[in-house]
Amino acid sequence: MKLSDLLTEDLMVLELEGANREEVMEELLNRLDATQALSDRETFKKDLYDREKHGSTGIGSGIAIPHGKSDGVKEPRVAFGRKKSGVNWDSLDGEPANLIFMIAVPKEKAGDDHLRILQALSRMLIDDDFRTNLLAADSKEEVTELIIAV
Amino acid sequence: MKLLAVTSCPNGIAHTYMAAQKLVKTAEESDMGIEVQVETQGSIGVENELTLEEIQSADGIILAVDKVVDMDRFHGKKVLQCSVADAIRKPEELFQRFVEGNVPVYETQKERHQDEGKKNTGQNVFYRSLMNGVSFMIPFVVIGGLLIALSLGIGGEPTAKGMVVPKDSIWNSIFLVGKASFTFMVPILAGYIAVSIADRPGLAPGIIGGYIAATGSFYGSEAGAGFIGGIIAGFLAGYIAKWIKSIRVPKMIQPIMPILVIPLITSVVVAILFIFVLGAPIASLMNGLTGFLESMQGTSKILLALILGAMIAFDMGGPVNKVAFLFGAAMIGEGQTFIMGALAVSICIPPLGMGLATLLAKRKYGESEQEAGKAALAMSLVGITEGAIPFAAGDPLRVIPSIMVGSMTGSMIAMLSGVTDHVPHGGPIVALVQAVGNVPMFFVAILVGSLVTAFMVNALKKPVVNE
């Protein structure tokens, strides 16, 4: 399994429409729901917000990773949204988020392949070049190129 | 500067690993000369677990955690606690604090046993649990042992039933207090072994299980299962409680899990296991051993001496020890006092040998063990084999063979030189009350056996790593 199996092109939004966190969350939730990866959209949404309440997932440097390990998720998936103008995510550094990865993980799932992939993605996000390239990518194919290494 | 870090967040999916990556990367890129190694506790489990050697040699620890992690292993190190977010956002600041020396030294609340330093990860849980039980047990052994020693030494009288403290004497009360302390010994050992595995919910089941293990009447056995039974009970209680803890239950029941459900179910299960599964074999083991010893009569005296010595030292007051002792006591009635002579020597060798061992090689024993060693010396004088239990329970694989070999040596010397004893009790005190025949060889046998134990155990043990 590779990240490109979890983050397929139908889960990418290169120019998000939402103007705030709630709207962006809805947009990415819709994408995830459309792939049949969610068993219960509302449960997953609630878990996502519970996690945000715990502390914003806006980790700074323009990145937010709303995520949930939830009963509302059937299959692990990652949705990717980009908003060049940025959206307020109560980030740790106060800066708006440009790159948003919504990570959906089922509560019970055999094996940890998917967790290892998410671990690798998390580590990649610390890399400045990776972020710059993601911001500069012109197409979904290019994004896939970038994440295929993960 | 070498720093270690632990990262952990509630979900363990993303932040745990981001923080880890950020710390390593920042250290590589900075010119502070810092090297970082990170243990991640995420949804995959613990990865890159820090070893005790690494912790020992590190200059400091960063705990970037948003949930509770085990901190005991960082006792005495400089530990900087912060949130996962801090490690992602401002790793430079964290490093800077170490460079400036602006980090407090962390000290655990719990008393830590110094023996821990020498363990490698594989033995970790087993030994840490044993040592936790032993460290709580030691005061009970010391109090009980010294009070019993004192009351027997001053107020005791030799009788056909052994050393007895007359009922109307003040020493009898002191003797009973000492016995009370001994009663708690195995239950406390078992209880705190269980606590170290399952935390607080393990305490009651462990203590109850330990009591059952130590009380043979629960399963129709003449003697309890001793400290070895207590260790088994402790681990049983600990792992059963831990397993029940891991079951997911509805929110409504959660608050009563640690105080009611887990202790209750665990206690019942441990009790059932001990009474119906483990108890019967212990009783039949005693019967088997008794029959075996009786069949040994008239065969080789040397072989008998070796077997008796080994049995006395093996479980120190447990079923095997009891069988040998009762056999010797019965033989006095038949005029074969040489058997009790060999036993009286064997009985005091484990505590005397271990006490000598702590004096001969201080650096191989932690502080509390050195105290236990002094108490063991006093107990050996009045034949309380239990004085060596703290050592045996903490490091059974090295200590039990050493005390067995020592007791076998002493037993054989006594047997060969015709040492006799007509009071069913052991240790130098029986010589004092004129129950021993061939007193010089009685002491020679004790001394040689104890030295064998002391040298053997010190050769086997590694030095305690100073923290």
UniProtKB/TrEMBL annotation, chain A:
Residues 5-150 form the PTS EIIA type-2 domain. GO terms for molecular function: protein-N(PI)-phosphohistidine-sugar phosphotransferase activity. InterPro entries: PTrfase/Anion_transptr (IPR016152), PTS_EIIA_type-2_dom (IPR002178), PTS_IIA_fruc (IPR004715), PTS_SugarTrans_NitroReg (IPR051541). Pfam families: PTS_EIIA_2 (PF00359). Coiled coil: none annotated. Its main location: cytoplasm. GO terms for biological process: phosphoenolpyruvate-dependent sugar phosphotransferase system. It is found in: Cytoplasm. One of its GO terms (cellular component) is cytoplasm. Gene3D superfamilies: Mannitol-specific EII, Chain A. Keywords: Phosphoprotein, Phosphotransferase system, Sugar transport, Transferase, Transport. This is PTS system D-mannose-specific IIA component, Fru family. It comes from Marininema mesophilum.
TrEMBL record, chain B:
It is a multi-pass membrane protein. CDD domains: PTS_IIB_fructose. It comes from the Bacteria. It is found in: Cell inner membrane. Keywords: Cell membrane, Kinase, Membrane, Phosphoprotein, Phosphotransferase system, Sugar transport, Transferase, Transmembrane, Transmembrane helix, Transport. GO terms for molecular function: carbohydrate:proton symporter activity; kinase activity; protein-N(PI)-phosphohistidine-fructose phosphotransferase system transporter activity; protein-phosphocysteine-sugar phosphotransferase activity. GO terms for biological process: phosphoenolpyruvate-dependent sugar phosphotransferase system. Pfam families: PTS_EIIC, PTS_IIB. Residues 126-467 form the PTS EIIC type-2 domain. Residues 1-100 form the PTS EIIB type-2 domain. The chain crosses the membrane at residues 134-154, 174-195, 225-244, 256-282, 302-325, 337-360, 372-392, 399-419, 439-460. SUPFAM superfamilies: PTS system IIB component-like. GO terms for cellular component: plasma membrane. Its main location: membrane. NCBIfam families: FRU, PTS_IIC_fructo. This is PTS system, fructose-specific IIC component. It comes from Marininema mesophilum.
